Amino acid sequence: MPEGKRPLPQPTPETRHFWEGTQAGELRLQRCNTCQKAYFPPRPFCPACGQREVSMFKASGKARLFSYVIHHRPVAGFDPPYAIAVVELDEGPRMMSNIVDCPQTPEALVLDMPLEVAFEKQTDEITLPLFRPAKG
Ligand SMILES: [Zn+2]
Description:
The protein has 136 residues and is mostly beta strands. Helix content is 6%, strand content 37%.
């Protein structure tokens, strides 16, 4: 286990549904009722058109590796080297995450590789959505 604790997000009223979702094993996104765009991170209005009528839905958990950087310095809660990745969800939004079950090397981390969400419980309140190479 890595030394120290990684910094964890603090749920807010706007993000609580997201963190309740990850605890339940669901990746919950929001979608605008007007323009139908899915978005992340959570907010009470559509970032594309500004409408406040938005709905929550359960995402597929499927994504592709959009970009990443490999860090070689130790940071609390991580064993270097580790990749900080941006994944693009099948529904469209991008999120920062880590890629697990995979060597943290440029040879293994291929851009556009298919990924699937993997939930990792950190505390009673926070379960992080990480991503691993999709099976099959
Ligand atoms: Zn909209």
